[in-house]
Amino acid sequence: MSFAELGLSSKVLAAVAASGYTVPTPIQAQAIPHVLQRRDVLGIAQTGTGKTAAFVLPMLTLLEKGRARARMPRTLILEPTRELAAQVEENFARYGANSGLSVALLIGGVSFGDQDAKITRGVDVLIATPGRLLDHFERGKLLLTGVELLVIDEADRMLDMGFIPDIERICKLVPFTRQTLFFTATMPPEIQRVTEQFLHTPIQVEASRPATAATTITQALVHTRSHPADKRETLRHLIRSAENLKNAIIFCNRKTEVALLHKSLVRHGFAAVALHGDMDQRSRMAALESFRNGEMTLLVASDVAARGLDIPDVSHVFNFDVPIHADDYVHRIGRTGRAGRSGWAFTLAAPTDKKHVAAIETLIGNAIPWTGDPLPVEEGEEEAPRRGARPRRREEPKGRDREPARGGRKEARPAPKDAEPARPPRERPEAHKPASEPKRPHRHREEPDEPAVIGLGDHVPSFLLQPVRRKARSPA
DNA sequence: AAAAAAC
């Protein structure tokens, strides 16, 4: 099977060839001929299956006939996130370089002016996130009555994000006679209902993931305590000791944690950038670009980056937090091991994450192996000998002597918020110690921006490099 | 429980 057999125009075929592709992916082979015949298509496919090109290429071919009119886009593509929308735009730029088509990207976080000007001139392809699209529409600057083809991408994710009402509204604003291409990775009942409502006798095409997670992605769970400072330390050691680490995406559950971790990693000398939805759009784009082009090797991200992002060469994924939704786990680790490459996915798991880990293992159908030893903290987890003593509960290390009593040792802390008292200057972490470094009997609870402790602390990754050696109780 | 997306 070759692209030439699918009915694409010579211009498009030339652009595909220039990009170095010769063989269509299954979803492309199945969908493209139907799109060209102007059928509605229901594509059940994840990213990484070549789904984007499955609609971009035939759209380019179809759009060669006809011309855009002012304020009346001919085609409309809806994406759940700004980054995905921008990614689709890049696909049009790549494959449509010689087509002379005008493409506009309507996403939030950037000024209306340029977007408006483009729409007014007339665009062949409008790529949008729902909020900004409706905003333009409500301002009366955009007419959707000329849309011949509508693409709804990542529909199940739109559902997760509460976009379905917007999608339904938009579907009613475009002509009934339009062609609709609808892509989703899963088919929950709500999505089923939407497809029945808005697709006309669709051709259903399905593409399984190019390679299952099990075959190309090596997964592992890593024991950690649940306090962020402990996790950051564990992560640093994990990154430093990872083999074949080319670059990595590090996922956190919260935007605040993304920001903190990013700052901490930079402080520790890592080439890291952050990506989350509270950042301004310019920074988001810049971060993604610097990670894509290899300038930065670590991308600390919220789940905004969990799905769909096409960065073909990510060697590692680290889950700094265990994702709360099991399916997010699958999406996150799917950022590595792409295009037939090998990938590694490490998930930091604290005893408190047990439940979520179990849900993930149920979903993926097998147990994720642990790397190294369980931490001693797990023993007697429920006993919580000292927990009540502190005003704000946090995950205290359970072993005795971990957290010295107030005023007991040099670690005594004046302020509740971990404000560190003056401490002898410590060595920078870049000169981190080999695993044979003798462990400290007491623990440090370092503030994110504090220089790191010498050595590993008694609690950290003996498991990474050492043979099984249960931690001795700290000498009293 | 949190993320994303509109100002």
UniProtKB/TrEMBL annotation:
Biased composition (Basic and acidic residues): 393-447
Alphabetic keyword roster: ATP-binding, Helicase, Hydrolase, Nucleotide-binding
Gene3D superfamilies associated with the record: P-loop containing nucleotide triphosphate hydrolases
Ranges in a coiled coil: none
One Pfam family in the UniProt entry: Helicase_C
Residue numbers covered by motif Q motif: 1-29
Domain Helicase C-terminal positions: 234-383
SMART domains listed in its UniProt record: DEXDc, HELICc
PANTHER family listed in its UniProt record: ATP-DEPENDENT RNA HELICASE RHLE, ATP-DEPENDENT RNA HELICASE RHLE-RELATED
Family label: Belongs to the DEAD box helicase family.
The protein's name: Superfamily II DNA/RNA helicase
